[in-house]
Amino acid sequence: MKEYKVDCLIIGGGPAGVSAALQLKKRDVDFILVEKKAIGGLVSLARKITNSPLIYGKTGIEVVNIMRNALKKSGIEPVFDKITNVEKSGEYNAFGEYSYKVKSIIIATGTKPKKLIDENYRNVFYEYDKIITNKEIKNVGVIGQGEIAVDQALSLYDRGFDVNIYFKSTLPNINLELLGELKKSKIKIINNAKFISIEENTNFTTYSYKKSNIVYKINFDALLIAVGRSKQIIQLENTNDTNGIQITDNITKTGMNYISRACYSGINAAENIFKYLGD
What we know:
The protein is of the alpha/beta class. It contains six helices and 18 strands. The strands form four sheets. Strands 1, 2, 3, 4, 5, 6, 17 and 18 form an eight-stranded mixed β-sheet that branches. Strands 8-15-9-10-11 form a five-stranded parallel β-sheet, covered by helices on one side. Strand 1, helix 1 (15-26) and strand 2 form a beta-alpha-beta unit. Helix 1 (15-26) runs parallel beside helix 6 (259-278) and helix 3 (147-158) runs parallel beside helix 4 (176-184).
């Protein structure tokens, strides 16, 4: 197994992790940036950024390209690996496909979709990018309440899918620009839809819900579930010593996961690590 030995391991290549990497580079800290899938994280799915003034109006892919270019120009080459656990024996040891022996760690793993059902159905998805590559899917039911649900519904609509979106209460409390685009679209909006069940057969996926004491069963080619995000954090084993570990704010406070906040949190974590290593 290949082993890396550095002063700091950054886990996660989203806005927080990339910001931390750029800041540590400025501080001349010996570090490695590890991302399990692709640089960008959740922002890569964004249809349009409306909550960060410096990148307002850009798509998620455009922002990801900015992040990749920043890493490239700074001479930072990410390692793609899935870190499964961290333990401490003298220094910190992290393990994935490779092993990492480090003095400090920044955990910037972001969030993961909350599950609505336990079953793993073939045409039930939690992120829209897996739908747009499937040519058999024409109509999609989106179940959710927040900005991520609406943003992904609009992304599917923009690509020609027939979309229904189901809210468990009234229209969600989201930014007015996004809400306005939803209302202008031909997406069918169903409010006060109380979830009952999801069933799947070889021909379609059935969403059952209750509204005004009436039960409805609607068939779709696919369902997209976006009912919230939960913390995605690395398991820390055999250690109570977390002095050399920084956890970025986009994990600890999932309710306000804005890009600007994530970037600041990554920079702040990097500065704390710089001070820790200097002590």
